[in-house]
Amino acid sequence: MRPSPRSPSPPTATLGYALFATRWLQAPLYFGLVVVQGVYVYKFFNELWTLVLRCVTGRATETYVMLSVLKLVDVVMIANLLIMVIVGGYETFVSRIDLQGHRDQPEWFSHVNPNVLKVKLATAIVGISSVHLLQMFVDVQHTAQHSLLWGTTIHMAFILSAAILAYMSGPMLARTDPVHHQGHTTDPEPPAAPPPAASVPAQAGPRAADAGAEERVRAAGFPARKLLEDYDEQHPRTFDRDGVARLGKLDFVTAGRNVVLVGPTGTGKTHLAIGLGVRACQAGHRVLFATAAEWAARLADAQAAGRLAGELAALDAYPVLVVDEVGYTPFDAQTSALFFQLVAHRYERASLIVTGDRPPGRWNEIFGGPSAPAMVDRLAHHAEIVRIDGDSYRTRRAATSAWAE
């Protein structure tokens, strides 16, 4: 039995909490930027009103209209930069803003972090600089030559800086996935007929063009790429097609509810779990996939290092966690207690997709200790349970191949 980690001494903990609380000193700064946002709204409508009056009275030349429009665009782009700094900075450095389930949640906010925020700010600055430079060239007759030269030089410096920052952030983002699957030996659940080749090709279609979605799919750690549309619905004897179609709308993610896929080995549970995870990634949600054994090892390592609470808090950044293959390996009381903490921490806050070979009512055969009933109660409450019954897809394919030979 692993010894419990030593907790920090009260004075050290108090000092740490006090230092951490100083982050709230930044909150007034962001609210000050909200006031600046209001100033830019006033500036926008003041400029717009002046433009309309001059157009109505016939005193607006083509050059004036073009310059005024560029000024309006400039104000809007600066306002966009401000909102990214206000919302993204507050979320990153002060306190979480829980927008999961909000219908107006912007796409960029679902994966905001310091690296992403820096790149987006750099590209916004390049856009603003482009508008300023265009204004100078439109009004070139009234712009000094040295101003054009310096404006162009500064703009190129912004572009170069943004390119370098984006290049440097790429490797950093690639290292943000905390779950490693180099040792993953899971035989994936059955694919659609016919089965795919050894390498998994990228899927064509409108979703493939969404670089953000593809980045989330890669970071999720799926052992293979599976889509709900590719699941062979004719193979299982019993299969709730309407239930899976309803889950495909991802209402369970926005509601923080769980999904439990139950069925014998080889009936497609992992395929469906990955398919739901991929669809969640395409909808802007971050997903993390691992087998039950891998989750157990991860939680045990965090507890041994004295950072279990921090690990559970870090997983809040993922609206969907996939726990595959529950039931293949029984867990002792200590590991069961760790799973209970994971389920309890996410209860009615974020979603778990769990696959297993037996229903939750029989999970006392898997999880030992007194925490198992409480864990099952929280996991199954508000959960969508999909039962799949049928023969193993792999066994059927092996028999078919032998007959063909």
Write a structural description.
- The chain contains 14 helices and six strands.
- It has 405 residues and is of the alpha/beta class.
- 24% of the residues are buried.
Describe the structure using short key phrases.
6-stranded mixed β-sheet; 405 residues; 7% strand; alpha/beta; disordered N terminus; 14 helices; 6 strands
Shape assignment: elongated
Structural class: alpha/beta
Q: Average pLDDT across residues?
A: 78
The number of helical elements comes to 14
Radius of gyration: 27 Å
The run of helices and strands is HHHHHHEHHEHEHHEHEHEH
* Strand order across the largest sheet: 1-6-2-5-4-3
Show unreliable segments: 1-8, 172-209, 397-405
Q: In percent, how much strand structure appears in the residues?
A: 5-15%
Quick summary:
This protein is of the alpha/beta class and 405 residues long. The chain has helices at residues 10-21, 27-56, 62-93, 114-138, 145-174, 211-220, 241-247, 251-254, 269-282, 292-304, 308-314, 333-346, 371-380, 393-404, and strands spanning 238-239, 259-262, 287-291, 320-326, 351-356, 384-389.
